[in-house]
Amino acid sequence: MDDHFSRRDLIKGLALFSLAIPTVGLLSTSCVQTTGREDKNTTEAHTYYTLPPLPYPYNALEPYIDSETLKIHHDKHHAGYVKKLNNALRKLEEARNYGNYAEVKFWTKEVSYNGSGHLLHSLYWESMSPNGGREPRGQLKEKIDENFGGISNFKKQFTAVANSVEGSGWGVLAYEPLGDKLIILQAEKHQDLAIWGAVPLLVCDVWEHAYYLKYQNRRIEYIKNFFNVINWETASKKYKLLRGEKKPETGT
Ligand SMILES: [Fe+2]
Q1: How many angstroms is it from 175 CA to the middle of ligand 1?
Q2: 161-193 per-residue burial string, b: 16 or more CB within 10 A, e: under 16
Q3: pLDDT band at 12 (very low <50, low <70, confident <90, very high)
């Protein structure tokens, strides 16, 4: 059982995944709010999710990510996903209240699209830092070495993956608990091409709104500069929390 991921590990991994967002720092708890009021015209409407503040000033990632892009990206685009996610959840609440599920397919898709957009943008802000750009360390570095043959290979694959996303999407470094592996994924839009149970650790937004003002059509240049502000510290903490400390099997 030493060389394979045991059922106990899988259950632990999936349990961590379900707990990850609100409790173990995979995202800031400020992204999630279960009660409250948002719309003055609908005083009973719930605000399920809230926009987290940027963890640094708009100009903190200059010259690699310009302040105008960062401001519009956070205050308009990310805010829009949160607003639409809350609206979709309210529509589903209405459907339950009135027993009318005629539009449930549309609103459920809206939850997936906007919910994934909210989650990935929240993680994107944490994937960059004014003090970023260093190399990964500790357990995450060891796992990158094991799964990709070193950080240089990781960077090459991640860059190629992010650069080749069709249309709008993301480059994603994720931990996949079933195989106990790090994997690099593409996300088209926000929600397509994911693997169930794989938890994103670090993401690079390659929607044009993330880079077009500064880089125009030079997506590859933006991705290469993303590595100058990449925040391995946060990714390492997330990995450590997900992976936990390996304990010897007791047989019980
Ligand atoms: Fe974005």
Answers
A1: 22
A2: bbbebeeebbbbbbbbbeebebebbbbebbbee
A3: very low
